[in-house]
Amino acid sequence: MSAISPKIKIRLGDLLVNQGVISEEQLMQTLAVQKQSGRKLGVELIELGFVTEKQILSLLSQHLNVPLVDIAKYNISPSAVALLPEVQARRYRAIVLDDKSDHLLVGMSDPADLASVDLLSGLFAKPIKLAVVSDSQLLQAYDTYYRRTEEIASFAQELAEEYEEGNDFNLDAGVMGEQDTAVARLLSSIFEDAMQAKASDIHIEPDEHLLRIRMRVDGVLQENVIKEKNVASALVLRLKLMSGLDISEKRLPQDGRTHIRIKGHNVDVRVSTMPIQNGESVVMRLLDQSAGILTLDQTGMPASLLNRFRRLLKRPHGMILVTGPTGSGKTTTLYGALSELNSAATKIITVEDPVEYRLPRINQVQTNNKIGLNFAKILRTTLRQDPDIIMVGEMRDQETAEIGLRGALTGHLVLSTLHTNDAISSAVRLIDMGAPGYLVASSLRAIVAQRLVRKICENCKEPYRPDKEELLWLNSLDSKAADLNFKHGKGCSNCSHTGYRGRLGVFELLEMTENMMNALKLNNTSLFADVAKQSPGFVPLAKVALTYAKMGITSVHEVLKLSEMIVEQVNEDTTQATTVSLEQELAEVAHVKKEAPNDTSLTQHPSFELEPIPKSDDHNGPV
Predict the structure, then answer these.
(1) In sequence order, what are the residues at sequence separation of 6 or more whose Cβ sits closer than 8 angstroms to the Cβ of residue 75?
(2) Rounded CA gap, 603 and 317, in Å?
(3) How much is the pLDDT for 282?
(4) Angstrom distance (rounded) from CA 614 to CA 168
């Protein structure tokens, strides 16, 4: 039974009024709102701003004489959590924090709910002692500790038992459509586990003697092994049916898409299959449509960089690239930009593969290579649709790049992505793809490069001393690195013993200057890189990440992983020689420009106001 037994039921509203936390009028106002919403009184009081969650918890802790526990900092025992099934934990808003020799410590968001306390007491052989916990932390703890690992293994075993060992699963569409089949329950459990863990991708990989299900959480894969390897073909078949793929084709890769609903969340699932040695591998990208599109303010861009980026977006024409590797958040940034640009007075057309999020008022076009509807073909037609802004999902080839660049010259603002490591290499990459240097120089206005780094878990954060090799590299970025106080996460139950929880965007912004344009016009990529590095306001990704490491937000290891930089000892003479060489090359470029004053292929410095270039009146072609 419970260690506390209040004689009468405590009414939170009366308690807050008696303690002078809120007034009688505020209580009456909140009760009226609660009558309409049906939510708990405490939730309404917090939403109306009459009281904070911390005030309510502290008051309950003092009145009931029970401890107030910060779940984020408490070392919760996973075995103790498992003593209370998830369904009952969510019903009673409770969690078992610890299993002591003579009692269980149970955290509740509302320990004054005597009915729930009595019901909880009857579920355990040991007596319980209560603690007050934050409701928001409690919900987060459910997603962290109540993973579906055992449930997935159980459903996999059940599915395997329905068929003889070694048999292939030749299930037809009618059978696979039944919602109560074991394979449906197994898939449902996998999706629910992925959503709880906030995974971005699910990987189903059959091995020789087992099946691996891996989920990418905060950019790192977490593995769950299923011994029943023969259930893999059933999972793949079911996923193919769901995403409209050819179930008879197992020799070629296929791409599809499906839509599912998990615990109130509408999720788009991009499905990619690939034949491997032991069957077919499936990778699913999860896109939570219920979460909505992040605004630019929510992307994590620093205020100074964000203001510069917004100024660039207001320009009437030119190309802006967002670059980075797969999974770095490029699309999120572009969608955030489109959301700000979206208005009744602006015609926006996007060319995507695939269309990830639906945006009102924006004409979004999905490529389809099977019928020849590729980026280049759609882009040509797009330029005849009188757009103000064009978003190209990715610059994949020379033809797409050239059409996009020429579109930027004819009075359109063109946004696109490119798979490169940093901003400087992006312009070089366009030239490598075959785009003429003069066209890149005339059209490109700015490049945003971005990466995602993991944030150190606040619960297990502790001081960290870099080793000699790390210090050598850090000193190349900051000569005072040895005196800085870095942090890292030692690992705890709150972060699944990874030392990290959540991710943060790291950005660099390169705005084109006249000297950069001149270098590109001459196809001198090495000169362009040298000039770009010395550009005012340009801060490389590695230095931005190092700033976050100085602040204790991310770790030295994440900075090293992001930069992929080789530390070299450069002596003073070499540095001086490079500087002289750079000055000479710039002088030569300036001389070339002076010789050809009528060359209109070069645009002005982007910090000056640009004269608008009128849109082409010729609607029979892209330019």
Answers:
(1) 492, 493
(2) 12
(3) 94
(4) 63
Residue 383 structure tokens: 């330029």
For 496: left if phi > 0, alpha if psi spans -120 to 50, otherwise beta; the answer is left
At 35, list the tokens.
């009558």
Whole-number Å distance between alpha carbons of 495 and 490: 10
pLDDT in tens, 61-108: 888 888 998 887 787 877 888 888 888 888 888 999 988 888 899 999
**Low-confidence winner among 132-136, 251-255, 327-331, 601-605 (lowest mean pLDDT):** 601-605
556 vs 562: CA distance, rounded Å: 10
d(C-alpha 526, C-alpha 225), whole Å: 48
Amino acid identity of residue 46, one-letter, is I
451's CB contacts (< 8 A; 6+ apart) are 324, 325, 328, 505, 506, 541, 545, 562
Extended beta strands in 387-485, E state: 389-392, 413-418, 444-456, 461-464
Distance (Å, whole) CA 327 – CA 330: 8
As to burial, measured by CB atoms within 10 angstroms (0-12 exposed, 13-18 middle, 19+ buried), residue 484 is middle
Answer for the pair 382, 376: CB distance below 8 angstroms, yes or no. no
Burial annotation 566-594 (CB, 10 A radius, 16+ → b, else e): eeeeeeeeeeeeeeeebeebbeebeeebe
The gap from C-alpha 414 to its chain's centroid, in whole angstroms, comes to: 24
| CB contact at 8 A, 476 and 433 | no
Place of tokens 């470029």: 589
**3-state secondary structure at position 46:** helix
Cα–Cα distances in angstroms (integers) from residue 415 to residues 232, 382, 386, 392, 425, in the given order: 41, 14, 16, 6, 17
Q: Which residues have C-beta within 8 Å of that of residue 169, sequence separation ≥ 6? A: 163, 183, 230, 231, 233, 234, 237
**Model pLDDT for residues 416-453, shown as the tens digit of each residue:** 999 888 899 999 899 999 999 999 999 999 999 999 99
280 neighbors 273 (Cβ within 8 angstroms): yes
Q: Are 554 and 548 in contact (CB under 8 A)?
A: yes
Q: How far apart are CA 457 and CA 281, in angstroms?
A: 32
Where does residue 218 rank: exposed (0-12), middle (13-18), buried (19+ CB within 10 A)? buried
Out of 147-156, 224-233, 611-620, pick the least confident. Answer: 611-620
Structural contact between residues 457 and 450, judged by C-beta atoms closer than 8 angstroms: no
Give the model's pLDDT for residue 161. 62
Instruction: For 384-425, write each residue's pLDDT tens digit.
Output: 899 999 999 888 888 889 999 999 988 899 999 998 888 999
Are 558 and 474 a contacting pair, CB within 8 Å? no
Q: What is the arithmetic mean of pLDDT over 322-351?
A: 91
Length of the chain: 623
